[in-house]
């Protein structure tokens, strides 16, 4: 099966031997590009236009520049992978002329690709640390079922509460009656997955750890683990019951971060542990809610002024010390675009000052800047 994720035009096109072309999802510019005029079309016609559709999607899928140890993969990391110059290979069809591209679309996608590549943002390790620290405090633990279990040899999973220490290591409190505690006592190898606080679907972030989870040694370390866990879950009084013990992922073999659609990769555990959660998160939601409720036009103006894209809708969906992610709707479809701050935000007062300055600078954005 060949899947073409057409984010630029707000369409998901799935092409397979068992999927009739008439069942493709067509609307807006995507419909025109694929040649749909209200009825079905030939498979050959659809295939000939796929390079144009794939190229249009490329700029949404390009990850930001980052260090080699934190580089996130993308299903289309650069314009190079979407050229349709008739040189063979790629998505071209042998014997068919290369598809013509809309010059305006090419200009827009090139501009946005360059913007997304250079836009200031947190490193992948910082994003992962921030996601885990400010999550709901719940995650999915995966253990290896032991020989004494009827499920011996099968992986087992459970939703559990957790906290993170100053290094970002997950801390847990398990009862003796829980099967995952018994599994870990016999085999500490485990996985643990945490989703972002507002996780709604696969376009939202998550972090998966693979490593060893062991019982925290009695004494000072247990006292510190208890304080950390109860600070995150103050109502979990049962951690003081006699059959509960604290566990911690002391060894991390792998940290996998998925920041959303087409933005994923493996982090070096040391980079994750050395990173710090973004300090803006305690007030980020309040700032975003205020802007989205009362100043959405100002956000649209900022996208036009600083990025050069005219949009019909703009909603701030995340904010950190270096900028914002804005969900936009335009004539090209919908996606998320990075809107960097003009300088680093160090506290809530500075954050407000930066947004006010950017709003004022954008108020006079001329129509000539529209694309």
UniProtKB/TrEMBL annotation:
Domain named CREG-like beta-barrel: which ranges? 122-272
Q: Kindly state one GO CC term assigned in the UniProt record.
A: cytoplasm
Where is the region Disordered?
A: 64-101
Q: Biased-composition ranges for Low complexity?
A: 64-81
Occurrences of domain DUF2470 (ranges) = 285-358
Instruction: List the protein's name.
Output: Uncharacterized protein
Q: Which organism is it from?
A: Nannochloropsis salina CCMP1776
**Phylogenetic classification of the source organism:** Eukaryota, Sar, Stramenopiles, Ochrophyta, Eustigmatophyceae
């Amino acid at each position: 099966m060949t899947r073409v994720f057409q984010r630029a035009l707000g369409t998901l096109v799935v092409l397979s031997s068992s999927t009739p072309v008439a069942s493709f999802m067509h609307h807006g510019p995507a419909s025109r590009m694929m040649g749909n005029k209200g009825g079905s079309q030939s498979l050959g016609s659809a295939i000939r236009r796929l390079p144009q559709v794939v190229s249009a999607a490329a700029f949404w899928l390009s990850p930001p520049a980052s260090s080699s140890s934190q580089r996130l993969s993308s299903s289309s990391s650069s314009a190079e992978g979407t050229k349709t110059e008739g040189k063979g290979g790629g998505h071209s069809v042998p014997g068919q002329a290369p598809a013509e591209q809309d010059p305006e679309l090419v200009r827009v996608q090139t501009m946005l690709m360059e913007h997304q590549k250079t836009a200031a943002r947190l490193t992948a390790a910082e994003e992962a640390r921030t996601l885990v620290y400010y999550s709901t405090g719940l995650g999915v633990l995966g253990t290896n079922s032991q020989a004494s279990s009827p499920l011996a040899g099968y992986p087992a999973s459970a939703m559990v509460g957790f906290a993170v220490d100053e290094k970002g290591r997950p801390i847990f409190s398990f009862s003796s009656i829980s099967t995952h505690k018994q599994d870990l006592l016999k085999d500490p190898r485990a996985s643990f997955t945490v989703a972002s606080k507002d996780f709604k679907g696969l376009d939202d972030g998550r972090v998966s750890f693979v490593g060893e989870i062991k019982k925290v040694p009695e004494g000072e370390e247990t006292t510190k683990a208890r304080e950390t866990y109860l600070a995150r879950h103050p109502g979990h009084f049962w951690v003081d019951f006699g059959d509960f013990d604290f566990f911690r992922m002391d060894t991390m073999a792998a940290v996998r971060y998925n920041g959303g659609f087409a933005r994923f990769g493996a982090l070096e555990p040391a980079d994750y542990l050395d990173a710090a959660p973004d300090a803006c998160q305690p007030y980020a939601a309040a700032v975003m809610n205020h802007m989205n409720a009362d100043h959405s036009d100002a956000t649209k103006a900022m996208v036009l002024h600083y990025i050069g894209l005219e949009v019909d809708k703009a909603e701030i969906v995340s904010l950190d010390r270096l900028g914002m992610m804005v969900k936009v709707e335009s004539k090209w479809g919908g996606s998320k675009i990075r809107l960097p701050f003009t300088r680093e935000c160090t506290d809530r007062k500075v954050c407000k000052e930066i947004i006010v300055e950017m709003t004022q600078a954008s108020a006079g954005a001329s129509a000539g800047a529209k694309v």
